[in-house]
Fold these 2 entries.
Entry 1:
Amino acid sequence: MDKLLSWMEHTLHQLNLVSDMNQIDGFSRLGYTKEEQKSQHQFRVIAQELGLETNQDFAGNQWAIWKVDEKAPTIALGSHLDTVYHGGGYDGVAGVLAGLATLKALKDEGFQPNKNIAIIAFACEESARFGVSTIGSQAICGILKEKHIGHLQDLDGITLSEAVENCGLKWEEINQAKIPRGDLEQFIELHIEQGKQLESTNTKIGIVSAIARPTRLKIMCKGMTNHTGTTRMEERRDALVAIAPLIHFVEKKAIEINKRQEGSIVATVSKLELNPNSMSMIPGEVIIGIDIRSTSAALKKEMTTSIYEFLEDIKRKRSVYIHVEKIVDDNPIQLDAFIQKRLHPTCSELGFSSMFLDSGAGHDVMNMAQKWPSGLIFIPCRDGISHHPNEYAEMKYLLVGTKLLINYLKELVVTK
Amino acid sequence: MDKLLSWMEHTLHQLNLVSDMNQIDGFSRLGYTKEEQKSQHQFRVIAQELGLETNQDFAGNQWAIWKVDEKAPTIALGSHLDTVYHGGGYDGVAGVLAGLATLKALKDEGFQPNKNIAIIAFACEESARFGVSTIGSQAICGILKEKHIGHLQDLDGITLSEAVENCGLKWEEINQAKIPRGDLEQFIELHIEQGKQLESTNTKIGIVSAIARPTRLKIMCKGMTNHTGTTRMEERRDALVAIAPLIHFVEKKAIEINKRQEGSIVATVSKLELNPNSMSMIPGEVIIGIDIRSTSAALKKEMTTSIYEFLEDIKRKRSVYIHVEKIVDDNPIQLDAFIQKRLHPTCSELGFSSMFLDSGAGHDVMNMAQKWPSGLIFIPCRDGISHHPNEYAEMKYLLVGTKLLINYLKELVVTK
């Protein structure tokens, strides 16, 4: 296995386009950019070296296929190659790398599968550039609302449709992305946990039961802008002072719900903008964004209801105008129970400690799961940090995840 | 007086470069721009029609002088012509207009002064463009730190020194700005109140005793950025949740100080920036700006000390890093007591209700007062609103202020 480990280490650098994973500013390889394309190119080079057939679909997703039989079903593994601004080199790459390493190991062992096995490197999984996540996997699953999002702009004013076309694709054809041939029997994604549950319990593998997709509120609080120096305290309608208690309330309410132990929830005031945002002006308007996640739709509802009630209270006390918009309200996604049940004994056979857990973050698998039986495997990442230059996963855990995939496939895909 | 009123109404529009004072987006006539220059041009046209000598100094301040005797001292009136972004047409213009109208009235009456009388239209009073206020009056008073501020940029990346040079001036000569001849005996500024004290007590004139210049704190609170979906509530070091109670505390403490009635204070969290400011990220860093004003240096000190103590408490409770920088700490400016004592009976003689009050906002007079005996007169403005398209002062109050100036000058400047 030492040979596989060093191949993986080399390939990790290759997919990240660096010779050293320590990058002070992290990795900024956003979706539908030249940087993502360079990484996709490396993916194809590596896949071809392994004797796999490579393919790009209409959404720019990369496919590497161990094709054995046109009529046989396909098992797919994979994740994505793009990152957020100043992100890490493991979120996404880990799953693509583990997939490629799994096929390399099976090939090196002389294994001859009776089903096709594909590795997918999904395009533009992160929402960092256009505010929309998992574009490539949505397109494959035929759930991309391409008419509603093509106009969205990145920080440079480039629209999503322009960015896609700059990659040599056609925006109006993006929803024609599909499995290159036949149908998928199942899809398994491996990903770093982006949390601390594995690390803090010293567990090697997380088998994910459900994905807690977000409910997101955009709250506008309007008071009255005026001069900070000339407006007496009792004459003010300061929108920031009015809305500020909500920040603490959101945290308090989430902790209170978690204490009941009926399920868990996280809730965050993650965006805040003042208008004006100027030293000598009382903020007349505040716009707040709240991100709420739980695998329980009922707990998410309890949280939003309590926020609405709290805002009513603020309106009464502070004579401000408040408008709330639910900009996202995605139901939790349950992953395939059969796959979870098969992954668990495979871990035990290999001597890997494992636990069932939920995912607070969205992943490409949440789209795939709506169409095909799908599973998600987590490996530990240091301090639970992701989307940050300090993101790090030990090679030994990447190898553990790969071994799990190897054995899982061996059970599922009988040698011909 | 009907004739003077209609002349003033016409001139108000002329200085504001409009035929209708109702402008939905307000006035954006920033310092050292073509727009300010156009208004300055109108000022010179009007002054010349009144038979005054016009002059521009090295800082771009405009002077209109009723010159009677080279050796006689000069009394100056004035204010500024620039505005903030989307501001009103009274903040600044009111004082310039009242000054011009005063000279017109004295001339029309055949009054022959024994001292020179000047109207000054100061350049770039507002800090909106470069973050530095009262540039023109600072230059006249020789207190402009031109070496420290020339590099400051506006929203388009134009530096202050470039903007000044674009107006045909020389940045390195700006501190050579001075009184065109002789010395100033005193300076009086008329300005809209930008507060509600006059309006709410139905008082026509405010005689300002002191100017409460700001103390400004920049507070950086650093926790830990992480993913909103994957980081459990108890694992977080959310910088926004940590610092948020400060927003309410600043208001509460100011109200508490004011209740003691030992003097008044205003304090505002007026700037707030999250980093990152993204739906799916826990804010790892928050930068807050606080603006504190009082004519009592002791009360300002009490406020800042209590903020420091509150922050120590936050640090302990939330394990965040907090850094505070006092970016501005200007002492209050006391205006000339003799001028105030003379203005008061002049109001009484004219039958104008008046009150002594403090100014929460800075004005050009705060620089002039450091060099020459100076006074500041407030007239009411509707709802205390300024720096906003809704800023409005009734013509009748502009006339009241002008009449006060006329009579004040008649007492001060004996007819030859």
Entry 2:
Amino acid sequence: MQIPQPYLLFLGDVTDPLSAKTAKGVLHWRPELCTGQLRLNAETVSLGIADLSLQEAKLRGAKTLVIGTANAGGYIPQTWLQTLQEALERGFNIASGMHQRLTGFPSLVTAASIHQCKLFDVRHYDHPLRIGNGKPRPGKRLLTVGTDCSVGKMYASLALEKEMSRQGLNTHFRATGQTGILISGTGISVDAVVADFISGAAEQISAAFTDHDWDVIEGQGSLLNPSFAGVSLGLLHGSQPDALVLCHEIGRTHTRHLPHMPVPAIQATLDANYTAAKLTNSSAEFVGICLNTSAIDEEQAFTLCRQWEQEYNLPVTDPVRFGISCIVDKLHAI
Amino acid sequence: MQIPQPYLLFLGDVTDPLSAKTAKGVLHWRPELCTGQLRLNAETVSLGIADLSLQEAKLRGAKTLVIGTANAGGYIPQTWLQTLQEALERGFNIASGMHQRLTGFPSLVTAASIHQCKLFDVRHYDHPLRIGNGKPRPGKRLLTVGTDCSVGKMYASLALEKEMSRQGLNTHFRATGQTGILISGTGISVDAVVADFISGAAEQISAAFTDHDWDVIEGQGSLLNPSFAGVSLGLLHGSQPDALVLCHEIGRTHTRHLPHMPVPAIQATLDANYTAAKLTNSSAEFVGICLNTSAIDEEQAFTLCRQWEQEYNLPVTDPVRFGISCIVDKLHAI
């Protein structure tokens, strides 16, 4: 699966800036792939890039309309269908990270078929997969892991890819969730595959390679989150990472959506991932910790990073505030 | 989902005794549910019970025709369709543990609808599930875990259920795989659910209860099998077991289907499961080890069990050779 690029970012009629997180992520990490935005009315959230009609975007070379918004149910509003239909008629592919499938609308399926366009439901995965086998394969891999969901694993992965490339390491980002897939144009939502195939999906997402230096694989969930740990473990085994980076949010008091579960300790999270990673890669090692320190001020954050470096004997940084080069510096020796 | 019982065991035209494993399991653990067997010709494997026509089985009260065989691709042979069709016409439900779905045959779906019968594809699970939450829930639970797949977890679970009931503990077996589901008439194939829902499925398979003493939950895979560990971890977290029983096969040299992966050490398997189980049940403890000792003679097996009891400080038995009461004896104190 490769989503044709560049994109036109579709924002529908959403007015809550948080709902446009996906589109913002695509624009932040791949501005060169975004020809502009399409908003259904003047009240719609703006990304601060050119407002384009379907026709204008087509002239600028856009190949795929990306639904860059989220809502609570993950559904596609009826009021968007006319625009989506018109996009297909003008030859756009459509990519969506919504839970409700584009392919669940017969009218869109028919239009896509007539106009030879594709519908990409990146939150789902319907293609055949192999069972994972844990066999060592060529290529160096880094996986981000976390103390919880939504602690910055995708951000850290993309920041690592960027800094590694800057430091001369030829690096590919490998997406495992819907926003990451829209950013990279390819990948598999590992939490959406049938349970038997989690590690197999990871082996496919970052297959054997010899043509570049590193794959950076986007982590999902946490080994210590009881809702999703199975996904995290299969992803860890299938990724067989040489290098691990731990991600954590300062100030989070309990596991997301689970008030009865305290956030796990850093050392317990390092230990759990290190032990499990050894099963498929005996050389696996942690190379750094990324903190989301937005809950504290910059001076406190800087002090905390230095303290934790002493405590865990690893480079510690907030990639948003302090960059991520201190971690990448360690990768040249692996 | 509850598969109506009793059953007529369908053996098709299979001639390899190993292919009839599922039917043998159902007959071994639930002889009172098996009215007889239906074989398509004289060469078909026999379970040594009454050969019944559909009509005869119906007269004896059979409600569901159970496809009790397996083949390499998990497909339903065309040559069986006429019998399956006739079974529906006579008012039988059909249950299958095959990979290919009964509901994939439009003729069977139509006949089931006309005759108000149900098709149970127990290897699949298409109903809505909740995300697991790891909240403690009433009821005591035992989960079997293993050093690998196919080391006797289902056998140990059913042997435990039987012996626990004999010792006065009101116990329910909770099935997580196709043969177990056919035996108990209900359950979810946890390896077939979408990855995000593994622990949620386990929470549903053994929901909160106060009307009996124990649930014994059938384990799947192994935390140290890189093909399926995600399933095992989600099942462990969702089961939140009070008691764990480790299953292992003596003489296995490598992980099943993975010649490059040695079978993990017993202590490493105990440690991995114990540590992970603590996340959702701080009281989790191992209460015994079940060995499949068929590769060695009975005297050697007896000696080995005594040695391992010293080494791991747990009751150790081969449930087939020596029964499982030594483990159940420990459960009264939990």
